[in-house]
User: What shape does this take?
Amino acid sequence: MLTVEAIHTYYGKSHILHGVSLEVRPGEVVGLLGRNGVGKSTTLKTIMGLIHPTEGRIVFEGQPIARTAPHRLARLGIGYVPEDRRIFRLLTVMENLRTGLDRRGVTEERRNILLDKVYQSFPVLAERRYQAGGTLSGGEQQMLAIARAMMLEPKIILLDEPTEGLMPKMVAQIREIIGLLHRESVAILLVEQNVPLTLEVSDRIYIMEKGVVRHHAAAAALRSDDSVIHQYLGV
Ligand SMILES: Nc1ncnc2c1ncn2[C@@H]1O[C@H](COP(=O)(O)OP(=O)(O)O)[C@@H](O)[C@H]1O
Ligand SMILES: [Mg+2]
Assistant: This one.
């Protein structure tokens, strides 16, 4: 469904990705692990068209997308929740969710159906629908960011450290949301520092080190033998 083939990405003159390759199949949850600064977020940003690779290919459903603008990728069915969440603090929860739909020719009726569906999956957002985004807790803002991405009914969603800085109760809720997306056959590329959570929810795992993928394996294999995790992540 999504294939990343030997991409090289630079920030100015800094060569960050040195030939990253990975693949996500339809409906699959794929974990992308690695220490801080190895290029996980840069990989997601490159897939999402926020930075263009200088070499390599990115193919989504058979179509090369390495030169495609982010809003067009969103329309093709790629959802993205960045690390900083980008909630509009002064807009209400409902307005934040509706911004997810603005650029598409969606009827008002369809918007309301999508809103209702998202509210069913996130009761806390339904309760707070008229509250300003900035008044939500960190965990609630993360849910709002994921819910907003879901408004476009993505086929795949790129999640950048969704549990970062969250209380255990909220981490559990994010895990449930990942499970819900998985049951709805939405593919997920999950960047995380939380190794146990990633091993638990993922089908397959890629481990990055210094701008390349060093290892990939079935999550089940790493659950029963975590020596590779120790080797690359030191946890
Ligand atoms: N906007 C930027 N400009 C220059 N260097 C950057 C920028 N963003 C990240 N980097 C550098 O790129 C490397 C990889 O960063 P990143 O992809 O954010 O890593 P990770 O998400 O794995 O922690 C780091 O060395 C980081 O300092
Ligand atoms: Mg990062």
